[in-house]
Write a structure and sequence with these properties.
By secondary structure, the chain is an alpha+beta fold. The chain has eight helices and 16 strands.
Length: 471
């Protein structure tokens, strides 16, 4: 899933790229139009100059007073310009530029309009045809002014001037390369600016995200900042802070209630157990009375164990549970527990994958209690003929037992206090505090605790520590 920052970056860079590309095309098109107009104006100017050099005789013939040194672009083909003069009636060519080398220019139908043609050299070009009417000077004034010249009816000539557009194409190609380079550089600048601006603009949103990931039942006192945040985030932060305050108050009341109830029941339960012990040893008891007192003692023992577990959980949650960090040889501890639990798991296969010696700096008593809770849970809830496997690696211990009566849908509820798979709670031997107690011990020891129900309803509990163990 892409982040908001990534989506905005991609959208803004794409928009900037499209904008620069469109601007580049517009600049290129405008440059093409300007160069073409300039080229066409040059063709018209050359055609007008040639018309002024055309002289008509009384017999209807015309001569062109053309000198190549004044128009060198018509002298050689590499000059890129060509012209020819044709009689309108006969189409006879009476004069042409030296650059044509005997070739002819294609006829043009639109007089006075510039058109695209293919030059005799095979290159693309543009040409214009201008009509030169037949005129003679006044007989009585050899050097008459232009207004004293008269056009004769009929006859006349057309002058066709053409030029190569190779230079225009070359200039446009160079311009296109420069535009591409400028656009590429502009895109890099846009990407840099967009990333910097978004990093600053979305910085507080990232802080919100990091704070949200840290929230759990043990960090409900965290609050989202409300000062100096954007107007869009301010109401969200306020609402979330209100929700966190209510959750914190609710969790605090629950913990206080559990701790208070456990402490209040501890003494009466101890007294009840003492009375049951006394009743069991009374010399005048009947068999029924002895059995009654024995059952009462067992029930008091279970209640006392439940109360002790609740008090221990309360100490872990409040942060008052002491932790004594010492080196613990996990490999040796697992070997000892395997020997201890093998008789209890007569109908199960209790295996331990071989591993190099692993020593972890942790609380030995709490870590041992954590393993005992998990092994007790595995032995009690694995069906007959099942398998319990312990797998130890450098920074992880996995306890897998199965088959069980669990389903993948039960995973979110594993670790809840007093939760049991059987909703009728017909099994009075268990209180449903085992995994909840293990989860709190793991949290106190800063060990990651995860559960997973896999194939054949096998339950895998993973303990992961981030400290590098000493071996």
């Amino acid at each position: 899933m892409k982040s908001i920052r990534a989506r905005l970056t991609l959208a803004l860079i794409t928009a900037g790229t499209l904008l620069l590309t469109g601007l580049g095309f517009a600049v290129h098109a405008r440059a093409r139009a300007l160069l073409t107009t300039q080229f066409d104006d040059g063709l018209r100017a050359r055609a007008a100059a040639l018309v002024s050099l055309l002289h008509w005789q009384a017999d209807g013939t015309a001569t062109l007073d053309y000198k190549g040194e004044f128009m060198p672009e018509f002298e050689h083909r590499r000059g890129g310009f060509f012209f020819e003069v044709r009689m309108e009636k006969t189409g006879e060519r009476i004069e042409h530029s030296h650059s044509l080398h005997g070739d002819r220019l294609p006829p043009l139908t639109d007089i006075g309009e510039v058109a695209d043609i293919v030059l005799p050299s095979g290159k693309p070009g543009r040409a214009i045809a201008i009509r030169a009417p037949r005129v003679i000077e006044n007989e009585h004034h050899e050097s008459a002014e232009p207004e004293k010249k008269h056009a004769l009816a009929g006859g006349g000539a057309s002058i066709v001037v053409a030029g190569s557009t190779s230079n225009i194409a070359k200039q446009l190609r160079q311009l296109a390369l420069e535009i591409v380079g400028a656009c590429g550089f502009g895109i890099l600048i846009i990407a840099f600016i967009v990333r910097r601006v978004l990093a600053r603009g979305l910085g507080q949103l990232v802080e919100f995200s990091h704070l949200a990931t840290r929230l759990d039942a043990g960090h409900l006192t965290e609050r989202f900042p409300t000062r100096g945040v954007p107007a869009e985030l301010a109401p969200i932060a306020t609402r979330l802070n209100d929700l966190l305050a209510r959750l914190d108050a609710a969790f605090t009341r629950e913990r206080r209630f559990s701790a208070d109830v456990a402490h209040e029941l501890r003494t009466p339960i101890a007294e009840l157990r003492t009375l049951a012990d006394v009743g069991c040893t009374a010399p005048d008891n009947t068999a029924e009375a002895a059995a009654f007192y024995s059952d009462a003692r067992d029930i008091a023992g279970k209640m006392e164990a439940t109360v002790s577990a609740l008090i221990f959980i309360s100490r872990c949650e409040s942060g008052t549970q002491p932790v004594d960090q010492t080196p613990v040889d996990i490999t040796a501890l697992l070997a000892a527990l395997r020997t201890e639990y093998t008789p209890r798991a007569r109908q199960l296969a209790l295996g331990h994958a071989d591993s190099e010696p692993v020593v972890l700096q942790t609380d030995a008593a709490l870590f041992t209690r954590l393993l005992r809770i998990l092994l007790d849970n595995a032995v009690q809830y694995t069906r007959s003929g099942g398998v319990i496997t312990l797998t130890l690696s450098v920074n992880q211990l996995c306890i897998t037992n199965g088959p069980t009566n669990l389903a993948p849908a039960d995973e979110p509820r594993l670790g809840e206090r007093f939760w049991r798979k059987d909703p009728a709670r017909s099994d009075s031997a268990h209180s449903g505090l085992g995994l909840a107690l293990a989860l709190e011990i793991a949290r106190v020891l800063q060990i990651q605790f995860t559960t997973r129900v896999g194939e054949n309803s096998a339950l895998t509990i993973s303990l992961v520590w981030h400290e590098h163990p000493r071996s």
